[in-house]
Amino acid sequence: MLQYLGEYITRYDEELNVDLMNKTHDRPLLEQIVDSWKSLQIMEAIKIVDWEFTDKESEIDVNKYIFKRQRGLKKNEKYSYKWIDDSRLGLLTMWVKLSVESLDPKSREVVMREKTIKKSMLIPLQDENGLYHLNGKDIYMIWQLVEKSTYTAMNSVILKSLMPFAVRRYILDTQDTDGRCYKLPYYTIELFRRDVEVMLIYATKGLNFALQYALDTPYLVVDFVTDVDPNDLENLYFMISGKLFIRVHREMFETYVFLQSVVAGILKITTNRLTIDKIDDGEIWLKKLGGPGGNAAKGQNLLNSAKRLLDETTGKVLRLDIYNKHDVMSLIRWSTQEFNDLRMKDNMDLSNKMLRCTGVLSALLTYDWSIRLNRIISLGKKAALENYIELFSFPGDILVQKIQQSGIQRYNDVINDMDFFSKFKYTIKGPNALGNKNSNNLGIRYRGLHHSFIGHIDLTVCGNSDPGTSGLLTPCGKMDGLYFDGSPEPDDFIFNFKRSIKELAKQKGVRLIMIDFDNKDDFYRMANLMRDFVTEGIKITSTSRTDDLRLVLEEDTDMDDRKK
Length: 564
What we know:
Blueprint (H helix, E strand, L loop, with lengths): L17 H4 L7 H10 L7 E9 L34 E15 L6 E15 L7 E3 L2 E5 L1 E5 L2 E4 L2 E4 L5 E11 L5 E11 L2 E4 H5 L4 H9 L6 E4 L9 E7 L2 E6 H6 L1 H13 L12 H8 L6 H11 L5 H6 L10 H10 L1 H5 L9 E4 L1 H22 L5 H6 L7 H9 L2 E3 L13 E3 L42 E3 L20 H16 L11 H18 L12 E4 L3 E2 L6
Parallel strand pairs: 3-19, 3-20, 6-17
Antiparallel strand pairs: 1-2, 2-3, 4-5, 5-16, 6-15, 7-8, 8-9, 9-10, 10-11, 12-14, 13-14, 17-18
Helix pairs in contact: 2-12, 7-8, 12-14
């Protein structure tokens, strides 16, 4: 009878979430790591040329990629090490082209130095049971429970990304030219522990660009004027200076909070010395972005650092149309437009969370590279080719090291028949999670229970040493891939705003050429086609010699060769 016990079927067998048990929807580790490499391309000087992967262990000499520090030893006291630990590892090899402008010490002219480097890293191989064999032991990775997009904090919305950034809302007390008082919201984003006005970031290309980018709307709603029309009852006027005013449509201003935030954001970053001929001078706003002293180079560095806030993996995880996540600026715009809806999220609700496993390792790796990129960005234009090469001077077994630091690895040392439940273990600690790596930062509220846990998380299981930070997923719980709730993020603002503009133009007898569809999906589809046409279909070339640089091709470097 015992031999047939494994074939015994109950009515619960059909309810078992086999995909969750086998981590079917978790992306392969190799894909996650390649995406992590691609995130380096946010720097214009870095270009991923090619990559290859091999799992033929007989062709891989791990001793070439594992380093042992021997500081403080004399040359005759140092020894070569041969690593004999039993580990199953593949090899990922990347080719990266670096293109950096620098000053030629001989000719004293600016030249473009190009160099292609080769860098390899060891990738743990997973067997048919989902186990990794490292240092003679079998390990497996448990799930990490994280926010699927954003979580809320005091007066702010924080996006879970490479470097989690906070969008905050503040209130500006102001009045219009008729003396009516307003309390208007405006938004900031945290960059290097400094709150920067979102409109100031847009304004680095001019204030008119900032208006158009924030609202994606014609000047029918808001624009800049040099004087006030006292007989104009349709619009409101806000004074920037004695020679410059913001004119905004009254009804639209009272209807849309985000339009109020755009006006407040402009009033916040401008001074009473600004004139209409200076509003599109990007140098002025770059200097302001640079902080006290008006350093435009610092402003540009800060702007470049903002581009690193969105990595390849986060872009794929976010359930947003590509229109709202094709770069950092569009993502910031979306988070401010939908700020009220995002603030309504409950950090405890599972509908706002997702699971990940291999993504934790790529997040740790990308975070490590982000710290290295900070050094280059801090150098600004002084960053030389050698500084970029140093970015890739990490040990080839860095990923193996990150697994030991991840906090989600477990040894497969259970010897009884209850190891079935180990496939459903999860933790809320780790990178990009509440409290990050330090569970002391995790409030007691987030260690408790929530009604959304019913049917998804075992309410009777909690962590032993750190209660409330780990648990067990319900084996029969229903999920949408890695999401507890697969519904998309809120993104209705721009569609509804465009329709309101259409009605306003109709009332005023103004003919507009604009994207107009009856449903949001078609609207976004056409908006993306238009964006791709502008960015890819239109090419501008110049025959001027003033921007030409002499190209210097450096010898290729193999970063895995220790002699180099």
